[in-house]
Each structure stands twice: as structure tokens, then as C-alpha cells.
Amino acid sequence: MIRKKALILAAAALVMTFAASCGTAGRLKEGPRVTDPGVKAAIAENLDSLETLAAGVLKAAYMTENYVRTDKSIPGWEGYPVKLYTYHTGMDKEFGCRKLGKVYLLMPDKRQLAMWVATAVYSVEGRLDLDKCVKLFNFIKWQSGAQFPVSGVVYEDMEGDGTYYPYLFKDGITVYVPDGPWKSLNPDEKQLDFYLTMKNEDLKPYTGRYARICSTTREQYKANGGTMEVGTSDSEQTRIHAWMDAIREEYQKAWNSDFNMLITAWARQNLDTL
């Protein structure tokens, strides 16, 4: 999660240029097809503004400091344009240096992100509620900057005090290595390279709770029709590795689609609270 600062309230002004409502439909459990007339017309009318909002989210992607290469051979991600980046934190108060990070990311472009948000809101609301689109864009910006880590280290200054903690990610979810040579608060080059190629057997037998890029939980996934057995968020014993498989499967489905089930699953339970 990117530490919460002031949300970009100016983006909300764009809503004033949108239509007050953009067609109606029944509440949809599955993603609406953009060929459906109501969805197609609503999105086409407002796509430029939706893409502008999406571009604002992508500008928060702090891990894209230095592009290294595109790799389409990452195990489990073969054929997908996963990009390797290096980046630095701010000055870490404990170590007195800017920590180095390496991470493989598969990030949407502004068109993909615009469509994922628009279809999520349409699925939940039964219409393209553009005020809700702005709020969902802002939530994703705060949570992740739309950065989906395929593998690597993600530093976060959760308290805003200059302490950058290294969180390890695999398949869009936090993972954990056992105590030993690969665990460090200030990883060196060898450790950073290891994080890029971690296998499940290198990890503790549980994952974190929240899936990128919208903090989706196992419970939200299942409530939205997810069929894979992924455990529950209750404890380390129930946060099983299969959640990585489900996240990878759904994100890969979304990559060549206008619909991202993980975003919609979160929105279905939380959109009205934004």
C-alpha cells in the first residue's frame, strides 16, 4: 500500500464534464461485455476523461524509476510483457542510505486501467457512475499506484517516518522467506536477485491477505464467484499459497480483457464506502 497522502481531489472536477448517468442495467455478477450497448455507449462517451484519470494513477508508480528489460519468459507468466525495474527509496533513517529495489512489474496502461475501473463500477452499480469511478481510481492510486509485482521487493514507508521496510511479493501478493540468509531489512544485490526468482518452496507456507492492485481479499474473490480453494484471511494457517494461483489466473485473464475480476470483487463489497 502506498502511504496515504492527500488524495488528488482535483480529479473529481472531471466528473462535472461527464453525463450524470450513463445507461442502466441489472446488477451484474459477471463482468459486462463492452459490446453490450449500454456499456459501450457510456464508456465511449467518457473514455478520454477516464484515461486521464487512469494516467494520474499510473504517475504514482514509484517503482518504475529505472527500466531494465522486458521478459516474457518468467515462470507462470510466459508470454506476458513483464518488465524489470530498479528503483531507490528515499533516505532511510535507520540505515542512512537510499535502499535499492528490484522488481518485476506487469502494469496496465491507461486504457486498460480505465476499462477495468469503468466495467467494475458498471458491474456493481448497473450504470457508469462517474463519481464512483473517480473514487475507485483514487483508491487504487493510494493502495498500489496500479503496480502489480510479479516478483521482487516492494519498499514501503508505512508510518511516514523515513523507515522503508522491504516487503517481498510474488504473483501480486506479499510472501515471506524464512529467517536465514535471504531475509534482510536492507537487501544486497544477491538477495535482491533471489527475490526476483523465488519459488514457492523457498517461502513460508502462507501469504499476505491483500492482492494487488486493489487490495482484494480471498473472501471478496469467493463472494464474487471465484471457484479456486484459496483458504481464508483468518490466520497464517489458513492463508495458503493457492491464493497466489488465483491472483495470477485472474490477473492474466484481465490482461487481455476489459474486465478485471479482482477489482470488481473489491468494488462489489466496498464501493459504497468510498
Describe the structure.
There is one protein chain. With about 270 residues, this protein is an alpha+beta fold. Helix 1 crosses helix 2 (about 110-125). About 35% of the residues lie in helices and about 15% in strands. It has helices spanning about 35-60, 110-125, 130-145, 190-195, 220-225, 240-255, 260-270, and strands at about 65-70, 80-90, 95-105, 150-155, 165-170, 175. Strands 1-2-3-4-5-6 form a 6-stranded antiparallel beta sheet. The protein has a domain at about 60-105 and about 150-205. The protein is globular, with a radius of gyration of 19 Å. It contains 7 helices and 6 strands. A hairpin with a 4-residue loop joins strand 2 (about 80-90) and strand 3 (about 95-105).
- Largest beta sheet, briefly? 6 strands, antiparallel
Mean pLDDT: 90
Describe the strand arrangement of the main beta sheet, using strand numbers.
1-2-3-4-5-6
Helix/strand class: alpha+beta
Low-confidence region ranges:
2-28
Helix content: 25-40%
**Percent of residues in beta strands?**
15-25%
Report the order of strands and helices.
HEEEHHEEEHHHH
Q: How many beta-strand runs?
A: 6
Q: What is the rounded distance between the termini?
A: 16 Å
Shape: globular
Quaternary structure annotation:
single chain
